[in-house]
Amino acid sequence: MYSFDVERPTSVADAATALGKEDAQALGGGQTLIPTLKQRLASPSVLVSLSGIDEIKGVSSDGGKITIGGGTNHATVAAEAGAYAALADLANNIGDPAVRNRGTIGGSLANNDPSACYPAAALASGATITTNNRDIAADDYFQGMFTTALEEGEIVTSVSFPVPEAASYQKFEQPASRFSLVGVFVAKYADSVRVAVTGASEEGVFRWSEAEAALSGNFSADALEGLSVSGDGMISDLHGSGDYRAHLVKVMTKRAVAAAS
Amino acid sequence: MTEVTMVVNGKSVTKSVKGNTLMTEFLREELRLTGTHVGCDTSQCGACVVHVNGEAVKSCTMFAAEANGAEVNTIESMENPDGSLGVIQQAFQDHHGLQCGFCTPGMVMSAAALLKDNPKPSEAEIRDYLEGNICRCTGYHNIVKSIMAASGQDVSNIAAE
Amino acid sequence: MPKDHGIGASPKRREDVRFLTGTGNYTDDINVYGQAYVYFLRSDMAHGNIKNIDTSAAEAMSGVVKIFTGADFEGVGGIPCGWEITDKNGDAMQEPAHPVLAIGKVRHVGDPIAAVVADSLEEARNAAEAIDVDIEELPAVVDMKAALEDGATKVHDDLTSNLCYDWQFGTETADVDAAFAGAAHVTTLELTNNRLVANPMEPRVAVGDYNRAGDHSTLHTTSQNPHVIRLLMGAFVLGIPEHKLTVVAPDVGGGFGTKIFHYAEEAFVTFAAKACNRAVKWTSSRSEAFMSDAHGRDHVSKIELALDADNNFVGLRTDTYANMGAYLSTFASSVPTWLHGTLMAGNYKTPAVQVNVKAVFTTTVPVDAYRGAGRPEATYQLERLIDKAARELSVDPMALRRQNFITSFPYATPVAVEYDTGDYNATMDKMEELMDFPGFAARRAASEAKGMLRGRGVNCFIEACGIAPSNLVGQLGARAGLYDAATVRVNATGSISVMVGAHSHGQGHETVFPQVVAEMLGIDEGMIDIVHGDTSKIPFGMGTYGSRSLAVCGSAMVRATEKIINKAKKIAAHLLEASEGDIELKDGQFSVAGTDKSVAWGDVTLAAYVPHNYPLEDIEPGLEETAFYDPANFTYPAGAYACEVEVDPETGKVTIEKFVSADDFGNVVNPMIVEGQVHGGIAQGIGQALLENCAYDENGQLLSASYMDYAMPRADDLPHMANYVVDHSCQTPCTHNPLGVKGCGEAGAIGSPPTVVNAVLDALNSGNHDVEHIDMPVSPSRVWEAMNG
Fold first, then answer.
1. Architecture in CATH for domain B2-77
2. How far apart are CA C556 and CA C568, in angstroms?
3. What residues make up the domain containing A78?
4. Residues B63, A4: C-beta atoms closer than 8 Å
5. Nearest CA to CA, how far is C244 from chain B (Å)?
6. Global pTM?
7. For the residues of C185-233, what is the DSSP string, one character each?
8. pLDDT in tens, B10-28
């Protein structure tokens, strides 16, 4: 790693100030950033650790919404987001137990790895990402792999998920990294069904609108029978071709619909 | 340099560390606690698992500065006060749950974290929990058996030798 | 009632206590006062001419001690290859230079260009980034067949081509051709044996130290064979005589072959410690390991089997391309030849067997032995082929195997080796019994009811272990003997230190070896300690690989202990005033046959060192003996493996539902450790079959350069305990070593890959599916492609 300082503010305001320094970078749980730093692919002057900020930790639910602090780790979401079981289940299958004790929802969403799990949940739930400056709708937030609507120095303070009537996240893991090769989050609301896919596309997480339309009329796996996904624009690598990923999108969507509760 | 104070294996330590000092480096080089190992640089192998405030974490993916004020426990704290092997350690020896020993500290620390939350895990739960701990020697068979035995479950009648 | 001590018992491992309490002593735990650190600047390009290396800016940077480039190693020896292969025209293999740091060219991603020694690793790495390297990129050489075409880019400009050797072995061509010409059926199969990375969990580490006063160099290194490193590095690379060089391999965190070889980094830190007059430490990161540890396997083969009208095997012919990578690693050349070709007869009495191997240089990391080394490649080809033949002929694959088994021993194969003993039907019977094949149809139906496919696969294998008879391997091109050595030092009070040439890096020698000596002497195992891993303490032995430790080094230990017993009996005879021929040793007591006169072990050992009442005119005082043991033949462990898999036809994911191994290891000294070895070997074999794949793109870039892309088997990839049995109850003892042991370290990795793939293909040929072929790793995407291709 290059040399840098680590600061550990205890409030969002202090963190925002610290992030105002040149080449300052926020450090969530570090589960993606630290391996990146080891490879010397980033050279911040100062890392502003968010782990000491209690005001952005915790899970609360209220009026059909569940709100998770940006600094909440995956293990806590798994344990405390029971009001949104599919979300708790997703959190409980990110990485491994030790990673879940450090990695945070805010860190995951800020990084927007194309094979991360949380972006699928946020997009499928029509979540609102709240920062120290503003609220951002999930549909506006994700802007391609590793790219988001966040401005420099902006901190994800919380994420608010409308709790659906039924939902499920189905992940087919890449055999080495165990990240999602294809992960599909299906959420059924009173007025709509949203389907978000992670892992598959070169553009990062996306909504499969044809499936949403089909499922809005008939929320069953059979409704997807006639649909197909093109392999164009899908990631193609050592672990699977674009066509394979496209195929899995449909398989995982059907499984998610069947499992949704 | 930042000054950090933490309780490691029951003893309070205060040291100056650089921002980029990882917990593994802090433990191995500053404190000479070399039981915690480094087997990869992508946070996957788990040879470095320690407990921070009672929770399993990968010490290679955490800065020492972030552990300021924390209580840290490593493999060196797992034996009984009289120096005999702790329950999990003893089960690993009894059931040949280790060969070269390199992944073993992380396995024991992960096992301890699992059994704290789930005192009688099933075989499937153990295998799932060990996703972040890679062993190249044992094929995991005897590790799983050791953890089941450490939880007080009878492993004598399992079909496999 | 199982034994509780001695041979056949399973005492708890004594080495476990230090590993379980964090008090092991691995190489990275060793720090020499005042040490510097080295960072290797490695090529990110597969192939190129080095035009210029400018280190001036880097040298001025903070903490830099000295920067080395290939120029500093002009005149220093290169990394040697330990085995010369003679090709089918009688010519020696092409053997390129392998400099410690690249000279003139880089030849693979990871090839070290420069080395920065600095006060800290961070400073070394900072300075390495400031080195200005000008490399003219050349085309990568990745595909083996293309590499042999006329006009192909050459990896080594001074060689005539990228062909290391073209080797042919076994039955004469005319006789093999005749066998095929007369065949009723010929089955042909082309397949790939995927490139693997050994991945011991401890990455390699080397600490070089130099004592100017004594002009003595010490290397601490993660090695399976410290004496081999001392010999190769001292004699061939750095020109340091043995008495001025100590190599220490302390606790080593797994090897699997990849820590046999002598590596440039070891020579570098030893050289640099002297040049800088300061200890120099290198610790490999895992990312660095992927591009600097020797890889394994990587064969592309065509294999053909000729059968007569009664389905008897009458001829076998193979044509293999074996990837050597950019340079010849220590034993690279022997793996596709003598460790592969000699096993191609398998368990079968095929009268005509011919093996052809072209070894090829490419711009990839060197390839060398990995657990099994050549034998998995042989077994995989043969056992896939037999299954294919059975499918084509619509016969039962197990019956086809049994029909062609070798059943009388000793048996000389057409590929040089003579199997001393075995019983292949016995292991097949045991495997069938444990697999419950009568229940398979119901299990398949149950799988199909939930939309899954189920298949079963079987496999038989034989390996040549206990490597190796020196006179034989010498004829075959080995540049070293492959004996081993042990010194049994009995102390005055009767305790014993046994210094052995074998090295334990997970195998449990510290527990197992005392079981043997204790059994022979009738004393408590706790009185015996094993010393290994330090050339200044142990006799010259060749280390641990090829399932050889107990069969070869253990035999040396037995011979040395026999010498101890003989001498101790002389001393006892003197003390008992009896004739030496009447002395018997039992339970640690020497007694005079037919009398009640006896003297204890401790009294005899004390007399040897306090020789007040001692036959000094006849024998020397002291009780210490060394034996070197050179085996008369290889050992031939064999077995029958089977498994059942479920395949999810929607995703292609394969799950192992049931696995049985029935091995014949000859006699077993410690069943617990043998079973552990098999578990580990099978996990690696399942890893090769389902998960692991070291891949390069056409530009020679390593695609699987970390655990993010190289899939290591995890706990949930492997079969559950209730459906998994490793059996070693079939035992035909080796006829030519004193313990009757055959070795168990590699069996699992050899026997399991074809078992798994045969099962997957069985599943993919059930119902209306008819997939003819699939290559390893049988990943979900490959299964899906095969089903939908």
1. Roll (3.10)
2. 18
3. 54-162
4. no
5. 30
6. 0.97
7. EEEEEEEEE--EE---SS--EEEEEEETTTTEEEEEE--S-HHHHHHII
8. 999 999 999 999 999 999 9
